[in-house]
């Protein structure tokens, strides 16, 4: 997200809470969150934001796997992300008077001393799924917190297709790979067609333009290559395919997202059965050079 003046919230605000109870508060079939190790049960005491709350036992819990609009983001120029108050209010309504059971899918404490957990309400409502279904959060996994990623994406994609909540606001729009010039140092969902794939010094580079010095690149560091191949197979299969990736956009030559774990990327198009024709043949584009 570019650091911009917060737009008005009127057109996405009033109706969000009106649909709160109607959208996706049906219990999940246990299975997925409850299959994870339990962290006990406690009453919700306070809601800090759309993805963070305080339990009666004093623990501060971050809803693992999702990111709601931030109430106060930025250090040099703090500002509230659009729809942040609506998201906080929605989680407050969802949890008011309820206890929740924590389920752990990886890290047990983050660098802010919060407890990352999947939360299931006492009547079976999965809070992450409910917030995503209402369009008041988006999927936000980490290398040590990937549990239920596929299920979370399913909830998000339905809300995104319906353009509800944050998905009705341009601040959260899915970015094209060629329009990231103002989005450095922000978290974005980016979609585009992979022009070329290269492997250099054990890293995988997915290039989205002919000039790696200026165009968008997804970089898979050495530590993430094995997991990437396990999920996507041969990286060459992604050449020419449209993919959707999310992460922090940094300037490394051009805009770049580092893929620390493969769950950051979705392949909206079916992958081909066989690898594309070698790019060294006449009439085909050569792989774009990559930075060392």
Explain what this protein looks like in three dimensions.
By secondary structure, the protein is of the alpha+beta class. It folds into 2 domains: 10-168, OB fold (Dihydrolipoamide Acetyltransferase, E2P) (Beta Barrel), CATH 2.40.50; 174-266, OB fold (Dihydrolipoamide Acetyltransferase, E2P). The chain contains 6 helices and 15 strands. It has helices at residues 10-18, 31-34, 84-95, 127-133, 149-162, 222-232, and strands at residues 38-49, 52-55, 60-63, 65-67, 99-103, 115-121, 138-140, 175-176, 186-193, 196-200, 203-207, 217-220, 242-252, 254-258, 265-266. Strand 2 and strand 3 form a beta hairpin. Helix 4 packs parallel to helix 5 (149-162). The longest helix has 14 residues, at 149-162. The radius of gyration is 20 Å and the shape is globular. The relative contact order is 0.13. Residues 1-31 and 273-292 have low confidence and may be disordered.
């Amino acid at each position: 997200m570019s650091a911009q003046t917060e737009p008005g919230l009127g057109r996405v605000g009033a109706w969000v809470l009106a649909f709160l109870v109607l959208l996706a508060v049906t219990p999940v079939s246990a299975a997925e969150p409850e299959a994870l190790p339990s962290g006990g049960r406690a009453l919700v005491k306070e809601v800090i934001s759309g993805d963070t709350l305080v339990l009666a036992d004093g623990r501060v819990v971050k809803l693992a796997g999702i990111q709601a609009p931030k109430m106060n983001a930025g250090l040099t120029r703090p500002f509230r992300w659009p729809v942040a108050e609506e998201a906080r209010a929605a989680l407050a309504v969802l949890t008011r008077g309820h206890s929740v059971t924590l389920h752990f899918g990886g890290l047990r404490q983050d660098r802010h001393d919060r407890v990352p957990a999947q939360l299931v309400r006492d009547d079976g409502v999965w809070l992450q799924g409910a917030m995503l279904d209402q369009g008041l959060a988006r999927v936000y996994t980490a290398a040590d917190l990937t549990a239920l990623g596929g299920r979370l994406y399913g909830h998000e994609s339905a809300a995104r297709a319906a353009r509800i909540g944050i998905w009705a606001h341009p601040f959260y729009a899915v970015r094209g790979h060629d329009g990231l010039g103002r989005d450095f140092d922000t978290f974005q969902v980016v979609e585009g067609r992979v022009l070329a794939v290269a492997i250099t010094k054990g890293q995988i580079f997915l290039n989205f333009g002919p000039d790696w010095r200026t165009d968008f690149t997804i970089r898979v560091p050495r530590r993430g290559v094995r997991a990437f191949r396990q999920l996507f197979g041969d990286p060459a299969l992604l050449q020419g395919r449209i993919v959707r990736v999310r992460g922090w956009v940094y300037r490394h030559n051009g805009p770049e997202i580092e893929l620390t774990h493969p769950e950051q990327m979705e392949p909206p198009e079916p992958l081909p059965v066989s690898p594309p024709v070698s790019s060294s043949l006449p009439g085909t584009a050569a792989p774009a050079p990559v930075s060392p």
